[in-house]
Write a sequence for this structure.
């Protein structure tokens, strides 16, 4: 479940028809330049999503040429570099984005995700905190969740739990935070809170392999064999090929 929330990716399909050249950009207004860069960003990310790395890079580099001081040009190129494992180039792109937009919450958040994946946990948490503190930054719940996931990666479950709680305070519907917080509570021997949260989760979204696995783990630790059997039967019936069910039938206690 180690997934991340990032603000930069809105991937759609465009054709190259109507895209202006870099030379033409010299005669464009700032708004027109941003639109041209956005067209290249969207096209580049579409190619990246389709696995065409050459065309992805071409379009994302063109976006930077159009608007080098536009944060999405730099962060989109940074994301490309991450996907092709050119981390040094990715970091340079993030730093350029910060040089132009030092108080942009999206840039700070995404750079924090990058740093955490590199194992630079303290630096990452600093960037998440800076993102959260920015006025008019509306993805606070995502940054708290990313901070929590990063804390988990560093082995700090106490801090992770605090950040998951803050994430849910800002957005009670965050699925990852809900499930991860339930897992941490179960690990602590606190069964009442995750039982309630998982009941609400299943009522809203239906039974999912992960939520069922958590309930099996919870009720097993709580000594409720009949409930373990109940949830295991549901898991086997609805998701017989899931990793969670295979772990259960193989007597593997690991949920994740």
């Amino acid at each position: 479940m180690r997934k991340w929330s990032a603000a930069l990716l809105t991937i759609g399909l465009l054709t190259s028809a109507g895209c202006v050249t870099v030379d033409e950009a010299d005669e464009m207004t700032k708004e027109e330049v941003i639109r041209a860069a956005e067209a290249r960003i969207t096209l580049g990310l579409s190619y990246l999503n389709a696995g065409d790395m050459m065309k992805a890079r071409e379009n994302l580099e063109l976006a930077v040429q159009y608007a080098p001081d536009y944060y999405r040009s730099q962060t989109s190129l940074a994301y490309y570099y991450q996907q092709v494992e050119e981390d040094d180039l990715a970091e340079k792109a993030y730093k350029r984005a910060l040089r132009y937009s030092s108080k942009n919450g999206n840039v700070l958040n995404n750079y924090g995700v990058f740093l955490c994946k590199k194992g630079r946990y303290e630096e990452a948490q600093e960037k998440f905190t800076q993102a959260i503190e920015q006025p008019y930054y509306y993805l606070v719940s995502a940054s708290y969740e990313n901070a929590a996931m990063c804390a988990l990666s560093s082995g700090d479950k106490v801090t992770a739990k605090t950040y998951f709680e803050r994430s849910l305070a800002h957005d009670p519907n965050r699925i990852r935070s809900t499930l991860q917080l339930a897992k941490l509570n179960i690990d602590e021997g606190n069964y009442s809170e995750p039982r309630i949260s998982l009941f609400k989760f299943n009522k809203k979204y239906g039974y999912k392999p992960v939520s069922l696995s958590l309930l099996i783990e919870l009720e097993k630790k709580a000594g409720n064999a009949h409930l373990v059997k109940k949830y295991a039967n549901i898991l086997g019936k609805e998701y017989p090929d899931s990793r969670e069910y295979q772990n259960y039938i193989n007597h593997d206690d690991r949920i994740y």
Notes: The two ends are 7 Å apart (CA to CA). The chain is about 70% helix and 0% strand. Residues 7-18 have pLDDT under 50 and may be disordered.
